[in-house]
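hiii, so i know i said id send this last week but things got crazy w the move. better late than never?? heres the sequnce for the chain we talked about at the cafe, plus the structure i predicted for it. fair warning i was half asleep when i ran it
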Amino acid sequence: MPAEDIKAQKQRLNLGEILWGDQVEPSLFEFEVLTNITCASLCVRQMKLKEKELLTKRIEENYRGNLILDNLPVSEEGSGSRSRFSKVVSTGFPIGIPKRRSGMGRTVVFNHLEFSVFFHESDTSVEDEDTYRIVGFQVSPMSIDFADTDCGPKFSPEAGGSPVFSTDDSIRWTYSVHWYPSDVEWSTRWDIYLKASPMENRIHWFSIINSLIIVIVLSVFIAFVLLRALRRDLARYNDPEAIQEDRDESGWKLVHGDVFRKPERAGLLSVFVGSGVQLIGMASVTIIFAAFGFLSPANRGSLLTALIVTFVLLGFANGYVTARLAKYFKMRSWRIIFITSIFFPGQMFIAYFLLNLVHWGNKASSATPFMSILTLVALWTFVSLPLVLVGGGFGYRADELTVPVKVTSIPRTIPPQPWYIQYPAAAILPGFLPFGAAFIESVLILSSVWQGRVYYVFGFLALVFVMVLLTAAEATIVLIYVQLVNLEYRWWWRSFIGAGSYGIWLMGYSVLYYLIVLSVRSWWSSVLYFGYMAMASYFCFVMIGAFGFLLTFVFVRIIYGSIKID
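okay and structure toks below
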């Protein structure tokens, strides 16, 4: 097909598809409804040296081919029955067998594709003609040297023959098409990609139960240990008959004059928390819509598009929260509001742009066009920025945040602290529990992103998302209470970093996942993997850190508002 015709038939992609790296173009395969093709020749390619080297490299790097028929992605035949744990098929197909697995010491090329198209006869007809709906699309890739085998009406893939190698001077590409009736209806044709096996459902439920146990244990600890200790402390501090010296000997009340002291880099903390609130809203709204089925995988790119649109529209929340905190810290300034409007999106944009340069440099089809990047800039300039400024205006006009105790003029000396309250332990330990609660879901999401599987169990994801936020917040509250008991009153940044350390654990696991699960041989592919995982981990760090900070702030206000200060 001429390049002009291919360009003319290219589908228009939405923003999510483009940013995800999808490029849908018409192929040379020709299908006719209910018409079987035993063996058809696609083309014969005289391979040049550079083409041989490139094909060998792509096969050794486990590249996969992807095709779409009637908006259904092709799945590798039999891929859903290879594991007793997962019945979800793998989209796409391998383009060959790497040398290390071929058993022949050479790289094998899959030059023949055996397509299976499944159709369901519709109950309705158009102009007295029967109508059929495609409900399945599978492929079985093969390597057949047609110098020994005839490609014609008598072709049989079971006959075998010599394989084709990437070093061959000439390769003939062929395909077959077979149509099969199916009882699968149009409404359930995506189940083969989405529906989990009973084993996977049990794993999901075990994960949910595990997360619930962690949340319950932490809640019980807070309810029966922390609140009991607080009740005892409050009774002692508020006892009018108690001796003044006894009341002031120890405990978290001693730092009541310092606990709300302005922290270092208070403006930066305000920006972090405001950005985190925007991310919490974005993630919550998108997961809710996905859980109710509004973001179908049939609409490619809809999930990423929803994330971007929701993030832009929630700029108001970012500006409002940042302004409220900045006003409390006596740092009221429109400069902070402008900074918070570009802080997180600017970091993500720069990282994405640099990674996109890698795509451009390698001439990858997944590279984002420059016009799409300008679209992102326009969304920030004309939608997000104004909303952040409006939110900041409302935040500055709102009443100033109040605290129950006054801040003294002279900071209190902080005594030596146990190791688990000091950095780096205080910045890492709280994130372990929420990461453990979401471990199974994290593995499934990574498999979806990096191994070509479709993830659509957003109901489970919504439950895990809530439990991760609660677990992170509860673990951080426990840490801050222990810290205050030890007269360490610098809790502002520690509550944010401690809760956000989930992102640190996620990044650490991504390294382990890279070493154990993935088989990446290209240096640039490794750069892309760690670049995108760093972006995802930083996203989680800011989002969960903001949630932990806000709940810790409420907790500290409550306990210090419950004591009598002379």
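btw DSSP finds 19 helices and twelve strands in the chain. thought thatd interest u
miss u guys!!
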